[in-house]
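Changelog excerpt

This revision adds worked examples to the README so contributors can see how folded entries look when concatenated. The first example is reproduced verbatim below.
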Amino acid sequence: MDRFLEMKTFAAVVDAGSFVGAADALDMSKAAVSRYVADLEVRLGVRLLHRTTRKLALTEEGRAFHGRCKSLLSELDEAESEITAHSARASGLVKVNVPVSFGILQLAPLWSDFMAANPKVTLDVTISDRFVDLVEEGYDLAVRIGNLPSSTLVSRKLASTRMVLCASPAYLKKHGRPKYPADIAAHAVLAYSLLATGDQWELEGPKGKVSVQVHPVLRTNNGDTCRAAALKHQGIILQPSFLVDADLRSGALVEFMPDYRSVEFGIYAVYPSRQFVSAKVRLLIEFLAKALGKAKWCGD
């Protein structure tokens, strides 16, 4: 009997909570699943599961063995994944979730390059600022920007972006250029409503941290909307470098108070820790890290 198949079947029963669920997940018959678990218990000489007509429960031995099974199976998958990642066999669907502005402006131009280099991999890219549940909604990978909360997910930093204080030259000419953070309070502000600090903008200056209470004339949950209004000379914005870099380089927007810097955020690839990193996902993460690492706006 294949010991790994026995362990895989036992782990599937525990994860699914039933023999029927495990049979569906493994594409086996319920009888085969029951036999593998029974044979495993006989070989080990212990009962791993308490079976009732309504539910399954792990014994103390079963709980300990389940943890070891998951670890061993994960290591096996990881070993196979590492080998496959260096071969041309990477294939299949990768379901990805990305933020709206970053996804459209920075990631959309990259997908075709990845597909050209990996013709057997199919991408399913969802663009949304909603905080999706990767495991529950079946995503293989998400790109997230900010300070990541602690979770059961694993992540890899791809790049970083800093928040930039800027406005159009015409606006600054008409209303004056702020020299100190307190000056911002008197200006028209185009605010991103999902900013963690709200209407309290926090900056790091020559003498340390300082904050200013702003009074927005526009609030929106979309950075592109803030940028569009700023380009029409309607006020001051605090937006990420990946969004305004081209405007700063062209002169359409101007950064002011360069001695006062706002926060820098990491850009991360996030994926479920309960799953091994398949070749197709690993290739995509490596591709994004390499491509974004070359970006002019990255951490500037």
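The second example, added in the same revision:
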Amino acid sequence: MRDRGQSIDSVALEEAAALRIRLTEAPGQDAQLAAWLAQDPSHAEAWAAVQRPWLFLEEQATSPSVIRLRRQALVHAHDALRGNWIRARLTRAPVRLATAAAVVLTVGASLLWWHYRPTVYRTGVGERRIVRLSDGSLITMDARTEVTVRYTADARTLALLRGQARFDDVRDPRRPFAVIADGHKVVATGTSFDVNVMGPRLMVTLLKGHVVILPQSARVRSAMFSATAGAPRMAAVAVTGIPPDWSRIVLDPGEQLIMASGAPPRIRRVDVRHVTAWERGEIVFKNERLAGVVDRINRYLPEPIVVGDARAARLRISGVFREDDADGFVSTVVDYLPLRAQRSPDGSVVLKYRKRPAN
């Protein structure tokens, strides 16, 4: 059996590309298309090969920027076609080149990629940023954070690749709002929630509204239903593709989900002001291991603090610290914990365990 791409006649493919461009530039020539399709059975296959990506693009791409790019692409494709025809007449090649069809297909594929590529937002050391999305939803990003955003006609999918961010989504019954982080999917409906990726730990805190935590593989879409017969249809979120051994996790406002590798999920009540203290330039720790505290502090420091040994890493600390006060943090932990600090030539500070003097 021949490859599908090889089975399409190159002349028919070029003629289909030319028709595609003429119909785009001057609509209303359906009779010409119908006559061409009736000439040979192979024409239908060639037309489908050229039309499919372009038709899909027309259905999906509605933003002014995409329309502008598409018009520019048509001009380039038209010029390429005209150049091929001139060269074919001059050289009298026995077989016409199918470059024109390739131009149309490539342009269609490129614009589809452009339209659906994710938008990436990043923050650097000690930087905070608020991003307002096209639907009015907000992303408040902590330092050293990276978020990608991909909006389509039926979904709003974001991914927290690193760091911490608060998400305030505007309810849209047609498009569920989902944030992917560390292999899990947080689905929200008109909600505010905080997601923090700290090394092997994922923490999701619900500030207000409603969220459901699902595996990343779960498929989420809008569904319409009627609560009672004759009542107006309302929108809900339908979820499929959940593994049999997975139980969906639902949070109430003020609850935090902690997921760590090798440990079962854990939900606890938290003070949301402490969780969101980073938005005010503060970090609040409550009986947390020094290793995790230092990981968090390092998001704001150009030269990192290093925990030098396992005994030091296991020490626990509570307190409120300014994000930009590295010296204050180091002096505090050295005063209250059995630690000593040593500055390295590269500017980093190493914290090591020290034995307490014998009484």
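Reviewer comment on example two: The chain has a mean pLDDT of 78. The chain is about 35% helix and 30% strand.
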